[in-house]
Amino acid sequence: MARVGVFVCHCGTNIARTVDVKYVAEEMAREKGVIISRDYKYMCSDPGQNIIKEYIRLYKLDRVVVASCSPLLHERTFQNTVKEEGLNPYLMEISNIREQCSWVHKDRAEATAKAIELIKMSVAKVRRNEPLFPKRIPMERKALVIGGGISGMQAALDIALVGHPVILVERNPSIGGRMAQFDKTFPTLDCAACILTPKMVDVRSNPNIRILTHAEVESVEGYVGNFEVKIRKRARSVDMSKCTGCGECMQKCPSRVDSEFDLGLGKRKAIYIPFPQAVPNVPVIDRVHCLYFTQGKCKVCQKVCPAEAINYEQEDEVITEKVGAIVAATGFDLSDPNDYSEYGGGRYKDVINGLQFERMINASGPTEGHLKRPSDGKEPKTIVFIQCVGSRDENLGRPYCSKMCCMYTAKHAILTKEHIPDAQVYVFYIDIRAAGKNYEEFVRRAIEHYGAIYLRGRVSRIFEKNGKLIVRGADTLSKGQVEVEADMVVLATALVARSDAIKVAQMLGIPYDQNRFFTEMHPKLAPVENVTAGIYLTGACQAPKDIPDSVASASGASVKVCALFANEELIADPMTAEINPNLCSLCKTCVDVCPFSAIIEEEVKRPDGKVRRQMRVIEGVCHGCGACAASCRPGAITLKGYTDQQIFSEIESLAVSF
Amino acid sequence: MEAKPEVGKKEKDWEPRILAFLCRWCSYAGADLTGSSRISYPPNVRILRVPCSGRVNPLFILKALRSGMDGVLVSGCHPGDCHYTAGNYNARRKFSVLSRLLEYVGIDPRRVQFSWVSASEGDKFAKVVSQVVADVKALGPNELFRLPDLDKKLEGQEGPHL
User: Fold this and answer.
1) Is B46 on the interface with A (CB under 8 A)?
2) Which residue range forms the structural domain that includes residue A490?
3) Average pLDDT for A162-190
4) Which residue of A has its CA nearest to B157?
5) Residues A333, A334, A339, CA angle at the centre, nearest 5°?
6) Residues 16 through 35 of chain B touching chain A, CB cutoff 8 Å
7) Is A172 helix (H, G, I), strand (E, B) or coil?
């Protein structure tokens, strides 16, 4: 027979004003199983907690009900109180008689009656509570970071600095990501490469980080602490252990193709590194364009390579690794500027996007840092920038703000004027969103100091006339139409989710929104966590993010990984589901309703040697939602802490007081 | 199919008893906010905390009606907000079936209501409770399904174990 103690809190006058706490305590003393019941002014205070402890000792209580504020506030407090007296913390229940009683009712008699019933429910439940113990599950304290952009690199570095091994997977031949393509960064105008390259070197030289470039994660199995991932390392055709990075092969390669890194503005060879500071500094053969792979002859690179590193026979390699946590840092794509036929839809060579502008103005870019019209190579004197191209557009189904464009457009305006002082810059905008440290000042500088002309309105059309681009748009501030004769137009195309975001999301168990951006566990209070335990999010795969936000979220995600790895084993919440194999009919409805894939079928050898199939809940994966328990037809599943019996008792306690 | 109207005695001072199953992440926290915002609602409701609306087995609801509750409210997170991704959708599917069953056997399905209340909707929780109480009040006491001996219990006599 359970020995329950009931402790009724006044909460100063917060409860006592509307609930007759003394009467409640007296009434509860008569309840079945209740050994002692008393009230006190502040149960959560030290003296209050000491009363609970003292009574546990004095009356040999084995169950405790605290009638006070919401369990969301003080469940942990009182769990610790009873724990200190040697009671299992799960043998304590809280009755919420403040937020859900005294604060919402005015009539003292009604509120008191309700408080009594709420406490009776808790007493009925606690009598059926069982001690629960957190489960310890072995864990692989190694992390996988998917994506080698600034966010992924920062996450890898932070985790590695704490001492845990990290595998950093990047699908391009080099780490660096989008930031490597940028010229300068707002609002400080320091050069992206100058701050990125040291970071790339840090990543390369950290002994805890293993970089796998030209590689992709193929599959992820398992659960938090125990993921098994398969990574396909695509054939590089260059032996990384032999290559010295001399670059001879790239110079001699006869095959020239459009450079993806320069977004088609420049050329690269069929054997190439994407950019001069690439890490690793080992070329890769693009087998689609290589003459040897397409026509069976050439082999010039092999002939000139002094290190004999070229290996045409190299094959894809699939690596299997066990990791405990995964950070998704898969970044973003740019929206297709051809979404807008009224802006030429790709027909006009001198209409480029913001990232192309970055490459053009970058000293190591295709034009060596000179602004040139792609059509005739002439220096543009009038440049029009158009913001919100592909974002904040309901017609495209993309209502969100792309967030970065206001700032990078202001940066482009400044850089244009620094490169071509007599150029005239126009910016068409809807609103200027410069909410960030020193951001607004930066935009003001573009306007006031550099003389960029900001026109508030949408551009309706761009067309060619006598070798010029006529940009026709509205100026809503002067309430008129404007036409600008431009030499070049730069579209601030929206940041969008990766084209294969859904595939990655499904592989990792990450929910995504209508824009295919990954959804965090909580938009405010768990911004880098994910519903699937052990999977964390960072960077622009969640939403458009600039460099400071990406780096901050990366460090946030790393702390979460390190906190997970702080213990040698995984400590799992004991309020998980449990399957009684003797009742289970193997219908597997539970597998269908479980959002976490926490229920598996396995074969168990019985003492008589026969093999029997049964379902099992993986405790480290189960979040304790109870969907399986509510759906189990043979009633084989119990949710510890919220069992059917506990809930029935709560319901029935209301009947007897009817 | 039309619900058969329940004819029950509607005493003057009769007040309906409602049991609310609230998911701990959204609706329970929403009900807490109702309290911290000091918004009042009728005292007829008893609150039972569950981890997720998906935890609520329809049997719990039948048990509540059997135990003499006149109405039941199940409230979870808004679609898309479920802490466990899809528990609220599971719950919704279950209750649409239950609702049909209740209608089929002649219990007005308005006795069992389902709502979405987020942790930031303290005012909505108060409105939902008030509405459920008003609806059930209009329906009268749940005499069809509750155990008949419950009336005797009221007089302090021992009834059968439920």
Assistant:
1) yes
2) 332-496
3) 97
4) A656
5) 130
6) 17, 19, 24, 28-29, 31-35
7) coil
Last residue of a domain, one of A496, A511, A532: A496
Using DSSP, state whether A501 is helix, strand or coil: helix
Instruction: Give the amino acid at A626.
Output: G
pLDDT at A66 over 50: yes
Contact across the interface for A72 and B32, Cβ inside 8 Å: yes
- For residue B15, what is the DSSP state? -
The predicted-structure confidence for B63-106, as pLDDT tens digits, reads as follows: 999 999 999 999 998 887 787 878 888 888 899 999 999 999 99
Q: Are A11 and A68 in contact (CB under 8 A)?
A: yes
Q: What is the pLDDT of residues A233-274, one digit of tens each?
A: 999 999 999 999 999 999 999 999 999 999 999 999 999 999
CB atoms within 10 A of CB B79: 11
- Copy the structure tokens of residue A37: 């019941």
Yes or no, beta carbons of A104 and B38 under 8 Å apart: yes
Contact B55, B84 (CB under 8 A): no
Q: Is the peptide bond before A548 cis (omega within 30 degrees of 0)?
A: no
Domain annotation covers residue A66: yes
Å from A464 to nearest chain B CA? 47
pTM given for the model:
0.73
Which chain A residues are Cβ-neighbours of B54 within 8 angstroms? 593, 625-627, 630
* Residue A342 is assigned to a structural domain of this protein: yes
| CATH code of the domain containing A15 | 3.40.50
CA distance A381 to A383: 6
Q: Total domain count for chain A?
A: 3
| Alpha-carbon span A647 to A639, nearest angstrom | 11
